[in-house]
Fold each of these.
Amino acid sequence: MLIVMQAQAGEEQVRAVCQKIELMGYRPHTVAGAGQTAVGIAGNTGEVNASAFEGMPGVAEVVRVTKPYKLVSRDFHPDNTVIRFPCSGAVIGGSELTVIAGPCSVESREQLFAVAERMAAQGVRFLRGGAFKPRTSPYAFQGLGESGLQLLVEVRERFGLLIVTEAMDESSLELVERYADVIQVGSRNMQNYSLLKQVGRATKPVLLKRGMSATLEEYLLAAEYILNEGNQQVILCERGVRTFADHMRNTLDLSFVPAAQQLCHLPVIVDPSHGTGRSDKVLPLSRAAVAVGADGLIVEVHPVPERALSDGAQSLTCDQFDEVMAQIRPIAALVGRSVPAPLSTAAATLAASR
Amino acid sequence: MLIVMQAQAGEEQVRAVCQKIELMGYRPHTVAGAGQTAVGIAGNTGEVNASAFEGMPGVAEVVRVTKPYKLVSRDFHPDNTVIRFPCSGAVIGGSELTVIAGPCSVESREQLFAVAERMAAQGVRFLRGGAFKPRTSPYAFQGLGESGLQLLVEVRERFGLLIVTEAMDESSLELVERYADVIQVGSRNMQNYSLLKQVGRATKPVLLKRGMSATLEEYLLAAEYILNEGNQQVILCERGVRTFADHMRNTLDLSFVPAAQQLCHLPVIVDPSHGTGRSDKVLPLSRAAVAVGADGLIVEVHPVPERALSDGAQSLTCDQFDEVMAQIRPIAALVGRSVPAPLSTAAATLAASR
Amino acid sequence: MLIVMQAQAGEEQVRAVCQKIELMGYRPHTVAGAGQTAVGIAGNTGEVNASAFEGMPGVAEVVRVTKPYKLVSRDFHPDNTVIRFPCSGAVIGGSELTVIAGPCSVESREQLFAVAERMAAQGVRFLRGGAFKPRTSPYAFQGLGESGLQLLVEVRERFGLLIVTEAMDESSLELVERYADVIQVGSRNMQNYSLLKQVGRATKPVLLKRGMSATLEEYLLAAEYILNEGNQQVILCERGVRTFADHMRNTLDLSFVPAAQQLCHLPVIVDPSHGTGRSDKVLPLSRAAVAVGADGLIVEVHPVPERALSDGAQSLTCDQFDEVMAQIRPIAALVGRSVPAPLSTAAATLAASR
Amino acid sequence: MLIVMQAQAGEEQVRAVCQKIELMGYRPHTVAGAGQTAVGIAGNTGEVNASAFEGMPGVAEVVRVTKPYKLVSRDFHPDNTVIRFPCSGAVIGGSELTVIAGPCSVESREQLFAVAERMAAQGVRFLRGGAFKPRTSPYAFQGLGESGLQLLVEVRERFGLLIVTEAMDESSLELVERYADVIQVGSRNMQNYSLLKQVGRATKPVLLKRGMSATLEEYLLAAEYILNEGNQQVILCERGVRTFADHMRNTLDLSFVPAAQQLCHLPVIVDPSHGTGRSDKVLPLSRAAVAVGADGLIVEVHPVPERALSDGAQSLTCDQFDEVMAQIRPIAALVGRSVPAPLSTAAATLAASR
């Protein structure tokens, strides 16, 4: 913590600040700058309360210099966190690019199987699909609930895909934890601290999406809530933030990826579907996300997007998804990432007929 | 819904759009503009799925013309909603300016009584104070929980103040609903739809704070969730939004007040404490909030802000709060609002000694 | 300047930073925080180049602690700047609330006289009206140019109103400086440094509008450009900033007023017309702007807004303007500001017939 | 234009809107939606004034359906604009990826030659370097002026690089147009309409950088100003926008690239140096910019960034620039773009010794 004094602050005001620091049990260090004095605090082992100084006479500004998060930081855990799924051999955060694909909402067995078959043929290992849907309007489709989860399990059994699906609250979390392989926490719940603590006690990895207007620090602190409860398996996901720009649904902040990777050891994936809101922009932004160095992608795919009960405008068709996979494979290779090979047609047909 | 065609769209593309509208059971109305054609949809009784048209050849844009909310709208309920608290005579949304004041967090009986006595002396009817605190960092003070609620009840009994306190999840809601008079839902939970549905079934009024980056429409839809479950007693609260501006903690959006009041019948109050994050700016912004026509204010007051366990930098001292009350009284009168008179010193002393 | 080291930075990295500071001729001061070290710089008389340190091994962050502006600062000039117009007795920045009103664009003598007569009747001292218009579209009305300025001069002669009008470039500035009493620099030119330097050498006061997304610091630095050329008569104007919020044309940032007044000695006025973009919202936000403590208002008024060649949607009618004046007078009085009295009907008629 | 009526609007209010449309010489088309009526306008050849309707009783909203720009639009000019530099064989907007590199400011012959030699060795065709610098602070280095331009010309003669440099106003434009190959207009001047008109009459191509908070539409309208004066050779440049996010200097909006390319025929390049503000983030964002499909890159390179007089923190060293080139070449190939080959060491040495 650094307390910056006003240019016209008198010596006695600087002294009062130093005395307060000493009263708190710390040591003040005075630094005289160009026309201004600053007082540093040493000897503290935790965070110092800035507001104790903000109102004092002569104080211009209080600058925090220690990061408020710890467990998510590379200072604490220098190596990348790699999340392993032993039964399937899949990993998130390793050298293989993670691709998570599937419909926004689970709507029917037909819909889910149609998508899953095409995913599996591409070698994709993770299927996304919402059974509990946080919707802006109370009148919009709210998801199939537990029967949606059961359909996801059928798909896992048939195609060997791991399931990523969202939990919205304590009761849906209990179900999601039971059925799914990865628990998703949505953007609107990024600062739902009760839910964060609950998933922090869960035994499954958590995909925590960035809030609509979350700073990097707030986002890392939200992840810190989860790690602090004991669950170390957290995946970050940039999905576009809210800005003045109106040419896309959100502004996809790809610089977030290397910025987060530098400070934090958790895997960072990108959601170009929510990040753009428009299916024809998912392809170029998927290429860019892989090129920037993301650990993976999560994209929405629907067999017939125009009939989707949610997010149709941003869902790829299965053919468009194949094109995304075809275009990102060589870019992934250039940035040192492998991508599972597509199954040969024969193998894919066989897999589908299991 | 209006489907705007591209300038170079051919007749057959316009025809395809019209046919799709007819297939959906609606009637297309073609409007030829300057160099561009648009097709309106008539005959629909609910919302039409925009994504059905967004991908069609020749379509430039799909424009929604019907508001997606209903119960919160003045179209549906033209008169102001007035929330009454029969036992105390207090109202929110009526001609009396509502003032809600108190500490960010309930910390101790001493703290709470010190503030409450001064509030009561000012004629204030509502005490705020958090027992369950959503904090950005997992290491920050998280509130006293139920024992904090019990302290609030003691204050209600002693000073006759109504209690406003936050619920964060199902379990805290159960307690808050039992102890408090108004259930607060915080900014970070504005789109926690599970919590919104739960408070929608509660029997107490709900103070729903605006999300950090919520548009007016998203905010009204969040309120719509509550009304749709049966609870008509919702209070909106502008508390600053997140922008690029860094001279305050948030950017207080006072134009929100008349904008919301025009579209929506619910009371709209303003939180200049979170809206600025700095105690010395609460006074001028409180004056402005009353002048713009807000139905009330919610402000943070602490007997010794520099010792506050949360939000000290934005908390008023009791003396500063008295000054806020003194300055807003005549402004309230100018915009047609009454403010309860301060108790005479004698009466205040008597009240405190009850 | 404070160089914050990474938690894992070694002693030799801290030493390298200290050596670099010494090489630059300054003195390093090491401050050991909780798990991290910071190095302060002392002995510098001007700004230190942050980038000299940002790339060094072990450096986490470089924090600037000295404000980069000087002439606009209260540290340099503690008293309010009051701009006086001797011939008319008007002031800006004094205890009288400054009201500047008039049409967005000068369109015709009839238009201008119709508005000016009503302004004068209200005791208003400043008429705004653009002769050179910066328009988002090249196809929109670009202003009458010099003949517009001549119409403004006719109005000054007839009604005694002082003229505020915009200069866009060197050639229009020459004309504006000759004809007008206050030179306006628009939001889009807030960082047009060539223009700022030119108006800094002008002999008339400058009304510098805040840029669409200017931080307080950038705005003060833009004003610093003008003062640095010798012109001390600068008026700041909050006119709404660009955010995600879409219920108004811009988000009026009223907290800017006390924040700027605290750091800077220049007068600060508010433009609720551009700040909202909607005429029916100008009245409540005008009240709020006066209540927050602004030194004045600038509002758009048009005799027939629906026929305005620019900004019709946000222009008040003359009757609406009368209502604004009626409502802000008593609020101004409450915050210690006088407002010139309206002329009696007789006097106004007489004035108009001069 | 579509006028949307309020739900409770009466028939006579709809009729009044229709009559007004007819009075303006257009034809009204009534569209009855779910509970609301909308009135379309047909028969207009130019833009209709929205404000004529916004204040009318019963009107909820006025929706514009025609884009306000024309010359920059693909509706008007479906093919890509390709800007050719006949003497050098370079193009912008063609199949070859354009790379523009060089220091933020021209500081000295040594600095410029050191960078240019390395650029030329990479096959780069365009050198950037500012001689006139728009700086946030009046106390920061403002550029060498004409002598800087002369140094740039020396470099062109020695290394065959084309010169891109910024003009800030009429007088610097005259010089820049004489010396440079491409005239840059900076972000802060994106809505300096006087300058836009002047460069619109220039005979050299214009690199127009996106404003800090410019929407796509505003940006295209700024380009429209230039085309409307006769200069068809305009290059757009995404350079990061201003948002709440604070982990980078700006938020690089890569979705802008495909969005602009879809609507507009002009080349679109990306500036990852300003877009991130941090040299270590330029590499990953350069890869992403090429992958998303940009027509080119503009990056800052300095022989010794820590001694740079401006923008040192975001400048690459020459070695880092080589790495950027090495990494983007194969990505460019994947998206169908060629990149000029680096000269062989021998050829480069020869070129430098010419």
Note: The longest strand of chain C covers residues 27-32.
Amino acid sequence: MNKGFVLWFTGLSGSGKSTIADRVKEELLKKNIPIEQLDGDEVREHLTRDLGFSKEDRDENIRRIAFVAKLLSRNKVGIIASFISPYEDIRKEVRDSVTNFIEIYVNAPLEVCEARDVKGLYKKARAGEIKNFTGISDPYEEPKNPEIELKTDKSSIEECVKQVIHYLKEVYQLDL
Amino acid sequence: MNKGFVLWFTGLSGSGKSTIADRVKEELLKKNIPIEQLDGDEVREHLTRDLGFSKEDRDENIRRIAFVAKLLSRNKVGIIASFISPYEDIRKEVRDSVTNFIEIYVNAPLEVCEARDVKGLYKKARAGEIKNFTGISDPYEEPKNPEIELKTDKSSIEECVKQVIHYLKEVYQLDL
């Protein structure tokens, strides 16, 4: 029997959240685990297009996602969510509202994320063209006790994926 | 094996949508069908508290609900949703985006709904204290081909509930 859960990837822009989340999803789908992925673009289009990047708007953004994740996870669906989600208090709210919250801190130093700068966002943030940019002009509150910590400056993507799958299998005892 | 579906109750304020929806939910839970109910208060609190009653806001309201209903229904959860949802085009959008949309037109004449006026809203709408009130100052576009039509001025609540359950069993072939 399936168990619902929420894999919550949090970390700076460029830390590797989405890349790892996509690969974890692939692995779980191979094992016929029912999965829904909640990521930036789809959520923004359908749920939160009215919201900006102030703390208030970021919190409301995460709250709407938490509501969806709550309904799905209690119906035995596995959720893969990747959002910067920089604030500890709101991550705590998600943890308290969903079934089986598994916090995954995708940890890479700011310098590394900024050097990668895949989408050119850090450059724009440094130039002041983007405001409220996490790590530059907005805080990122590190998870204190994440279920999983992935150090993407030291481990390869595949190693990180294995670490997540290992957790689901051994600690969470998902039938993989 | 469960099938996902969306029971979408549409109709005027006071038509009996929520009362029937609540009772249908009870009956399905008795049969261990996985059900999530999406109704006004919970959705407004968690998903749409920024929205008002203009056509644009009503449409955005229904679109967010449709997104949630899509994710749940394709994961074999039965959804019970009751919203006035007065516009044909947006109900069509919901139909096209979710798995197994079952439109239930809760049909009672405006005079009957207004005479019931359980929450005193019609009185306020007539006095101009509430604007954009469906049936009074805003249109209600009747469903043209609903899967189920319930005439709550002619049938009792329990008869309506039976009609919905009968549909799910005989037409939709849910294992009840």
Note: Chain B has a mean pLDDT of 94.
Amino acid sequence: MIPSRLVLDMPPWFSAIPDWDAPRRDDEARMRLAIRLARENVERGTGGPFGAIVVERDTGLVVGAGVNSVVRLNNSAMHAEVLAIMTAQHARGSYTLHGPAVPAHELVTSCEPCAMCLGAALWSGVRRLLCGAAREDANSIQFDEGPVSEKSYRYLEERGVSVTRGVLREEARQVLVEYAERGGQIYNG
Amino acid sequence: MIPSRLVLDMPPWFSAIPDWDAPRRDDEARMRLAIRLARENVERGTGGPFGAIVVERDTGLVVGAGVNSVVRLNNSAMHAEVLAIMTAQHARGSYTLHGPAVPAHELVTSCEPCAMCLGAALWSGVRRLLCGAAREDANSIQFDEGPVSEKSYRYLEERGVSVTRGVLREEARQVLVEYAERGGQIYNG
């Protein structure tokens, strides 16, 4: 029998982040929140070293957020970016964050997306993708990123999703290093 | 405020499929179920023309299933393959369908996966990917598939996920054609 319902809970500490409502006005402020979520996730032992948010481009309001929850939720699709997109679309009541009457949104992720999350970003309707740590930083602690190439990023750009990489890369990379040093679980397919 | 919980319901007709428990012994029987789910989804008006299942390779038992639910659930990540993987992992109580004490699993999808779903297949732990309709068939009714190339499939093969394409392609393609003829919604990013 196939389960008729799936329930996905955010980690319990999520609701204790005190300043969700503060606008993040520039790229660094946005990335700082994504990195903070990644770090909280590691330090509280709720998952892998990845965090992501969705913000309104012009106001900097946070409309979605996620942390890696693969092990916690027994669900290999629960990467930070996927949860950030899902919560943002839930908040907006729409399967796309793009439309004539919709403000532009950005997906801000503490690490360059894997193949799944790059695809998810494309379908989400965000108009911009901001990345912190690089693919090589994830690879260096043995996380596989899947088939992503420069061509993949160009595919997004050609469809109106601009891409900015390396925002606070060193801070973002430090969370990966810390996770590895703690002996954090690496869970590729 | 970020929602603290997301609830994902299968379409109501899902539980009325009478023969979930019957083993699907060969590739065609497996694909026939994936195509049937795609067709039911179109005919009942619950989503796009895509269906997918996860089966145990050796027994043919169905352990997960999904249909495209993007519009119904206001969630652009809810492709058939992602739901099939999520329900299978929920049933197994594990974030991976691969392991020393775990039987091998296959993901069977009525259409070649988009970039997101190809990545999701890689992380899921399935050992084989079976596809019905081709990328070009989806493209011909204006569904974008994202950055997927022959190299993407090779990436999976190199990591132990074998890929078989074109199983009952014509039957699978017919569901796409029927969806387009009904004026079904096309919802790329």
Note: Chain A touches chain B through 63 residues (CB under 8 Å).
